[in-house]
Amino acid sequence: MPHVTWLSMHGALTHFPIAMLIAAFLFELGALIFKKPDWRPVSFWLLVTGVVGAAPSLLTGWMIGNQMYGQTASPPSVFTTHRLLAFVTSGVALLLLLWRIKIKDQADGPKLMASLAGAFVLFCCVSYTGYLGGEMTLGETGDTAQTEPAATGNTAPAVKLDPALVAKGKEAYGKNGCSACHKIDGVGGRGGPDLSHEGANRSDIAWQVAHLKNPSKMKPGSEMPPYDTMSDADLNAIAQYVVSHR
């Protein structure tokens, strides 16, 4: 059975409200363009399901943020903007739903135009929020990082890894949301470097631990949050897990 994480749950849940809210706008617009008033109830119920579905998406997204950036006061701007817009979008969707309930979803001129305008604003919010989410996992920063040459100065002797620590590190790696930004063997995000061959690029366990504690010190300009509140045992385990990939 696959390991269920907040990240995997968010990935499974977040696309549902996105699809529903976008479809709600398209049906609302289609009802006007194609003179299909019977499409408006479809738009209304799509809006309802989108609002309901936004709740678990927001919850899982919030938990991922706590895992990834709860230990730093300055998470990347793309993350803070994405999270803020996610709540704004959900608020706009809820207000639009309440408005349509209040007017009993009447299809007369001014009210119809107001509903359509609200649906368009919601469409824009959903689209940009989704774009920022994709930027975090599939953005150019990941592509750039993956094409960097192997780190120089990797003169540390080959380390003898402890299989028990590697297994513990794999678990800690998953629990702390590392796969949201890093890919290993084709699995994970692209917001950070691909770690599939990190052991060949940088096998120094001490360097890896120091990097986890203070990424910007070891790699100036790094946007990776520090994990300096984690225990040395967990940091060492994650380092062993990462270095085990060659």
Keywords:
mainly alpha; Immunoglobulin-like; two-stranded antiparallel ribbon; 10 helices; 2 strands; 67% helix; elongated
Low-confidence stretches: 140-156
The N- to C-terminal Cα distance equals 26 Å
Query: How much beta, percentage-wise?
Result: under 5%
Given helix and strand content, the structural type is mainly alpha
Number of domains: 2
Count the beta strands: 2
Number of helices: 10
> Biggest sheet, in brief?
2 strands, antiparallel
| CA-based shape | elongated
> What is the alpha-carbon Rg in Å?
23 Å
Task: State the helical fraction.
Answer: 55-70%
Q: What is the averaged pLDDT score? A: 86
Order the strands across the largest sheet as they lie in space.
1-2
Oligomer: single chain
Instruction: Give the helices and strands as they follow along the chain.
Output: HHHHHHEEHHHH
